[in-house]
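Forwarding the complex inputs:
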Amino acid sequence: MSTGGNHELAQRLSVVLGVSDVTDLVRLSGGASRETWRFVANGESFVLQRVRKGTVGGFRTEPLVLAAAHHLGVPTPELVINGADSDALDLPFMIVRAVEGETIARKILRDDQFAHARSVLPEQLGRAAALLHSIDISSVPGLAAEDQVERYRDALLALGEPHPVFEATFRWLQHNQPESIKQCVVHGDFRLGNIMVDSNGLSAVLDWELAHVGDPMEDLGWLCVRAWRFGGTHPAAGLGTYDQLFDAYESVAGKRPDHDVVRWWEILGTLKWGIICISQAATHLNGVVRSHELAAIGRRVCENEYDLIDLLTESVV
Amino acid sequence: MTAPHDRPTASELLEALREWMEGELLPSLEGRLQFHTRVAINSLDIVRREIDLGAEQQLTHAEVLSTLGFGSDEELAIAIRNGDFDSNLISLLTTLRPIVEDKVRVSNPKYLRS
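Prediction (whole assembly, two chains):
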């Protein structure tokens, strides 16, 4: 990335924001489909996310969901510009006000500076989930409903690797699917790693790109999947008990989550992560991205088979 | 048991490599390279455990599958998908547990609940 390119982007950003000067523009690590930049304008810090050249799909409804969540008081970065349909920066983008904090799970779970944060995080996550589930669906037109079981069953079939434990789990999930009490806006990737934490606890819920319409308990189940405990001893983000999470959720939603329903979603979440592990290894194996890190993820598939057997035979409660 | 090869065995070679990577290479690195070296060490450990335990685990795997009447994971997966085990999914999972535990014992033994 040349300085000249950065300079041009800084100039275009100042036009988009209507400010005289954009400074301190630096590129942060981004995902596979997006680039992330941080910069300063009028003495305040902002974050730009822009679709990476050559990738399919844009921001769709994500900026709208983010704005709706922020409006309801969910800790999230404030949306400044929704560029989902704009060509001012060539490719779809959004600009949010920067939020400070740590996202690396292992640091949040172990570093001394987060000791207080750890004690309040499970409750904060429970309340944040209940709040985001109260977003008015009609305020985010275009947000799609998604059958998670069908989506991942198709994904497993397409990957073409035999996994008897996963097949058995799909059958169990089909036979035991709980009646959905309500359909609402679901974050879709609500977990440690996608939240920002400072010394006071939760400072922002990030990464809304998988938001969809679905059952609210999907987010609670996913939060409790063993992989997202990062070695922590308790189910809720590795830090809190189910009861702590459910109490906090109930204090906002007025209705206590049904543990059996959350468990069904935790089982589906464990299965999902197992299938994602297969697909990450496949990305290496079929040559899309050669990486020993992606390759090694293939050997984490069995951790999920192991957890599924425990969950389904109820040898852990 | 590793004839015609001389010592060190494949497992011992990996162990030597690991000792060097952990003791000398890792402390000299930081950030991304250090993380990726850690991942590499983990992968060496997986291979070493597979060399040490793999032959016996293959027998267990084949034995468990044959008690269920199948010759491969693929055949079993298809039967499950067709609903053949719908009335006894939980006992099927209990039967499959030793295979999965063997896999975790190779990939990440610390993950096993004692």
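Residues 10-108 of chain B form one domain.
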